[in-house]
């Protein structure tokens, strides 16, 4: 289930962008820090190409940190609402310039609102 971390990071990023397509054109480098039992793994995710490489991302605008076990589950099963909950309750942490974090948050919130409206129309 743990899989290759690089593949899991790419899978998680692609799924997230599929669910929030407004983020697709965003050019961004993200540092991903996965904390395991006694070690920390560093990865660099470059978007919009979803290029993942092992090692520190010195040019990253945003840094995402979480436990490796938690990430493995989220990468395979997590949806946008799950990610929102993870960041809200501290299971995952994102740091970086406030304007980038606010932009991503706003775009995600608007997409979630559109999804809620679609769902409400289907049930009406």
Write a structural description.
This protein has helices spanning 5-19, 68-77, 80-88, 98-123; strands at residues 28-35, 40-47, 51-54, 62-67, 92-95. The chain is of the alpha+beta class and 124 residues long. It has a single domain (5-123), classed as Nonspecific Lipid-transfer Protein, Chain A. Strands 3-2-1-4-5 form a five-stranded mixed beta sheet. α1 packs across α2. The radius of gyration is 15 Å and the shape is globular. The relative contact order is 0.17. The model has no long low-confidence stretch (mean pLDDT 92).
- In DSSP terms, counting alpha (H) and pi (I) runs of 4 or more, how many helices? 4
Q: What profile does the largest beta sheet have?
A: 5 strands, mixed
Q: Which architecture name does CATH use? A: 2-Layer Sandwich
Query: SS-based structural class?
Result: alpha+beta
In short:
The chain is α+β, with helices and mostly antiparallel strands and 124 residues long.
Per-chain topology:
Blueprint: H1 5-19, E1 28-35, E2 40-47, E3 51-54, E4 62-67, H2 68-77, H3 80-88, E5 92-95, H4 98-123
Parallel strand pairs: 1-4
Antiparallel strand pairs: 1-2, 2-3, 4-5
